[in-house]
Amino acid sequence: MTVADRRTRTEANRAVVRDLYRRIAAGDQEGGFTLLHDEFVTHNPRVPHDPAAVTGKQAFRDFFATPAGRALAEARQEVVRILADDDLVAVHVRVTTAGTDTAIVDLWRLRDGLVAEHWDVVQPVPDTLPHPHGMF
């Protein structure tokens, strides 16, 4: 693969992930789920996965039907930055719900132009910080 090909694939993957956030923020979860690979896997510990299931795609969909998933879908989400390198895309997100801020970093791996794998780190934003640097 040439450097130009890798750059093109990196930008295409960034666009898929950006579209995933756009759709979910617009309340179009079903549209967002179309961007998930048939063999999608999430490593989020809050998303239960039936061991008999072949993929976590349905588990991810089911999560958005839970109170926690609905709250996330209805929250104000601000994508602060997106970093992409080939098949990996990291997104730093500020999520605000009911006056509470949360910092999230999602890591997505893409395959065949679709989101195939997901990891995340979730951190509450404290009311005061011991430094002037902020969280975002």
Which helices and strands occur, and which strands form pairs?
Blueprint: H1 3-25, H2 29-33, E1 36-42, H3 57-63, H4 67-74, E2 76-85, E3 88-97, E4 100-111, E5 114-124
Parallel strand pairs: 1-5
Antiparallel strand pairs: 2-3, 3-4, 4-5
Distance between the termini: 35 Å
Total number of strands: 5
Please state the average pLDDT score: 90
Measured as a percent range, the helix fraction is 25-40%
What would you call the structural class? alpha+beta
Q: What order do the helices and strands follow?
A: HHEHHEEEE
What best-fitting shape do the alpha-carbon axes yield?
Answer: globular
| Alpha-carbon Rg, integer | 16 Å
Strand order of the largest sheet: 1-5-4-3-2
Contiguous uncertain segments of 5+ residues: none
Strand content: 35-45%
Number of helices: 4
Q: How is the main sheet built?
A: 5 strands, mixed
Explain what the structure shows.
This protein is an alpha+beta fold. The protein has four helices and five strands. The protein is globular.
